[in-house]
């Protein structure tokens, strides 16, 4: 396996010889979209927090650097996947330093609550993250305002937020169950004076694991069946020790790779409860899986795959992040499949290169699902019709974003002939050691 320096983006092309099934065992560690938030939560307490089962991905490096810029110490033990964060001393980071990191992540906005509690002010740079839609932060800012913060957007290089007299509890309703805005509210309200009620919230397993972390730290948070969180502000919090839940997006990505390449992959660490919706769809398509105590084995049983109609949604719906890798497998199903994307308005850009590789995929502005979504009549091509099976042929591809990029990689592995996948370092943001895993699965690449 080639050693990869995650800070180095020059190792950016992967030459893939496709057409070989991926067979073997890989291990998936903690969820990217939980670990980064738990790292931010550590900033709330003046003490040591320990996070286990952490994947070595670029987003973890970025958040580690952001924590260090704010005065925390972060020690990383890769063999154990353990992060030790000491947030005893917290200071405001230099604006220019934070700015150099901001292009690569959306996490800085979540620093607001912890920094307001510890220092009375926070600076949020222009945000990065995957280019899959407008990705506004209006819900975040509205939440912070309701909790009593002053939000100053007049700065050229970011947003200055202050709360000299601390935050106070409030009644907040989210117009859409945003994952980030739910986390924002939890991280900010946990030490606000009084009670906060957050309705219309998201309840993804990664959010519930964040609630578990906050409870270990001393928080009082409950959730009702109608997606309403109630947070009783507490004065002090202490450090935590926690093992991250498995990355269900990565697990589903490898499951889709098994299907697309006619392979057989045992994903150690994959958990059934968080993946139930995905597993139902996998079975309907004709994929086989076997759940064990150590993980889930996914395989293509031979014969034709069946088409499906799916709609992405917030939990417990079909995750938007599962959609792209699965679309590659759907190009090999016999008949018409439909994917209605209801979370992001612009998440089908990745299908263009798939069409160049031989797939038949058409995009529509209409809602091709059981219910109209909020993108109805808004001119976004957010429904896809995939007709299969179509053989895929290798091509030169530019990776557009994290999940789209992984789906291109799967397509290159499933295709006949060579492909050059350019911009591969984007995949390091969320797939730990994917080159090592590809090698373990017998992929032909360099
Ligand atoms: C998180 O993004 C994840 N990122 C995404 O993972 C994931 O796709 C998404 O949740 C949905 O599950 C991280 O956890 C770091 P949202 P987040 O706020 O929190 C709109 C991946 O590949 N919205 O739930 O940024 C927004 O535009 C990714 O790992 C507003 O309108 O997502 C979107 O349409 C990418 N205003 C919808 O809500 C706001 O202030 C859902 O976004 C905030 C969001």
UniProtKB/TrEMBL annotation:
Biological-process GO terms, alphabetical: cell division; cell wall organization; peptidoglycan biosynthetic process; regulation of cell shape; UDP-N-acetylgalactosamine biosynthetic process
Subcellular location(s) of the protein: Cytoplasm
Alphabetic keyword roster: Cell cycle, Cell division, Cell shape, Cell wall biogenesis/degradation, Cytoplasm, Peptidoglycan synthesis, Pyruvate, Transferase
EC number(s) stated in the UniProt entry for this protein: 2.5.1.7
Positions bound to UDP-N-acetyl-alpha-D-glucosamine: 106, 321, 343
Ranges for domain Enolpyruvate transferase: 16-438
Biological role stated in the UniProt entry: Cell wall formation. Adds enolpyruvyl to UDP-N-acetylglucosamine.
Family note: Belongs to the EPSP synthase family. MurA subfamily.
First-level EC class: transferase
Annotated NCBIfam families: murA, PRK09369.1
Substrates-to-products reaction catalysed: phosphoenolpyruvate + UDP-N-acetyl-alpha-D-glucosamine = UDP-N-acetyl-3-O-(1-carboxyvinyl)-alpha-D-glucosamine + phosphate
Database matches in Pfam families: EPSP_synthase (PF00275)
Ligand binding (phosphoenolpyruvate): 32-33
One MF annotation (Gene Ontology) recorded for this entry: UDP-N-acetylglucosamine 1-carboxyvinyltransferase activity
Active-site feature positions: 130
Record-given protein name: UDP-N-acetylglucosamine 1-carboxyvinyltransferase
2-(S-cysteinyl)pyruvic acid O-phosphothioketal found at: 130
Pathways per UniProt: Cell wall biogenesis; peptidoglycan biosynthesis
Principal location: cytoplasm
One cellular component term from this protein's GO annotations in UniProt: cytoplasm
